Amino acid sequence: MNRNRLLAGLAAIALAVTGIALLASPAQAATLTEVTNFGTNPSNLRMHLYVPNTVAARPAVVVAVHYCTGSGPAFYSGTEFASLADRYGFIVVYPSATRSGSCFDVSSPQALRRGGGSDPVGIMSMVNYVLQHNNADPNRVYVTGASSGGMMTNVLLGDYPDVFKAGAAFMGVPFGCFATTDGSSWNSQCSSGQRNMTGQQWGDLVRAAYPGYTGARPRMQVWHGTTDTTLAYPNFTEEIEQWTNVLGISQTPVFTDSPQPNWTRTRYGNASAQAPVEAISISGVGHSLPLAGQAAMAIEFFGLTGTGPTSPPPSSASPSTPPSPSSSPSNPGPGGCTSTVSINQWQGGFVATIRVVAGSSATSSWSVRLTLPSGATITNAWNANRSASSGAVTFTNVSYNGTIAAGQYTEFGFQSTGTAGTLTPTCTAS
User: Fold this and answer.
1) How many C-beta neighbours within 10 Å does residue 325 have?
2) Is there a contact between 219 and 193 (Cβ–Cβ < 8 Å)?
3) Of 24-38, 326-340, 404-418, where does mean pLDDT reach its minimum?
């Protein structure tokens, strides 16, 4: 099999993931556990499971699928999904490919049909294991992944539309795009972005994976950098065409915004945060997603951020870099809001996650003000607008998270240079 080009291109992911690990280390109190004998496993995948110390009643399940050359443990330690699980009380399954190159099978005829064999069957056995052994909610099963894992996200949504409620594919390709019949796992036409078909043709490939299925289809979020040369950017457009067709909605977006500089987000079918299809294009970025904060946007797209676990999750920082304690909530009063902050600090920088909790009445908009210490400068923020990068900064809601039901919450975050010290956010709402 010729994977040389893919493996070389994916070296950037390993570096990016290493950087992300510094930003948001998974929780230390709970541990990643390997599960064996989890069920039918035709391609000898390995399964690792992360169960937070505090889970929601009937927890959701998120399958997080690694890139080529990676592993489940590497994806666990290098992305934010475990720390988000601590916060929101869901369970994360981390599959590991064991074949040469550690890529997932997204190309064989067996992989591209329901129950056909290969990796999708093994991953489904992992999901079923968690549903049976962890009292998880079969109506809240989701999948996300990067590169090879992004391609597998597309495949699983096509093979098992009755199992997965939504997916978030980082740097993937459409279902069936990588299909081969010669026993190889590489499709140069697809990887270079030269496999162009109509939405109907792409949709027919998905429908052929489970002939006769007439039930609901999962929602899809896709991410891609415009300068990706490993799985070329045109695949982003082809994914949009495929999933809008599968879901029976227009390819014309009903909502467009820019949540971050150089990002373009479009929504299809409706303009809500859980639209049928959401697509985020990032200008000037190559094959290096997800970046800090993007995992949180995937979890929000899944709809898992509205209500967290019933008791506070354990700290997500490592013992050598303990988090700053959360600030005391501001006094909301009726219709107001409170805000707390948690910090992941490392040498030379930190990430702050701020939770905005509505008071006794729902909010329609909110703002949070805080003052950064001298020497701290915000380099990136997500799920909020900001007035400045240093000193006194006011964060305001973006279009999709201003409305918070009474007693519920939303979260935003930012990355900064310097030392966090003691941050004291003050929240106001209307």
Assistant:
1) 12
2) no
3) 326-340
Could you tell me the pTM of the whole model? Answer: 0.70
- In the block, which residue shows the tokens 């950098």? 225
Distance of CA 392 to the CA centre of its chain: 31
Q: How many CA atoms lie within 13 A of 49 on its CB side?
A: 20
Residues 6+ apart with CB under 8 A from 96: 45, 46, 47, 48, 66, 71, 72, 73, 102
Preceding peptide of 59 cis, ω within 30°: no
- The conformation of residue 11, written as its DSSP 8-state character, comes to H
Contact 156, 114 (CB under 8 A): no
Asked whether the predicted pLDDT for residue 27 surpasses 70, the reply is no
What is the C-alpha to C-alpha distance for residues 36 and 52, in angstroms, rounded to an integer? 19
At residue 129, the 3 state secondary structure works out as helix
Residue 311 falls in the annotated catalytic set: no
Token pair for 392: 């006194």
CB distance 48 to 65 below 8 Å: no
Contacts 24+ apart (CB under 8 A), 319-327: 319/28, 321/25, 321/345, 321/346, 324/420, 324/421, 324/422, 324/423, 327/422, 327/423, 327/424, 327/425
Bridge partner list, 225:
282
Torsion of CA 145, 255, 271, 240, to 10 degrees: -40
66: tokens are: 């690694």
pLDDT tens per residue, range 54-113: 998 899 999 999 999 999 999 999 999 999 999 999 999 999 999 988 999 999 999 999
Tell me what pLDDT residue 332 has: 42
Closest CA to 428 of 340, 327, 330: 330
What is the CATH topology of the domain spanning 337-429? Immunoglobulin-like (2.60.40)
User: Would you kindly state where each structural domain of the chain is located, as residue ranges?
Assistant: 4-302, 337-429
- Helix segments in 10-91, DSSP class H: 11-23, 72-78, 81-88
Per the residue annotation, which of 147, 148, 281, 330 is the catalytic one?
147
CATH of domain 4-302: 3.40.50.1820
Residue 347's pLDDT band (cuts 50, 70, 90): low
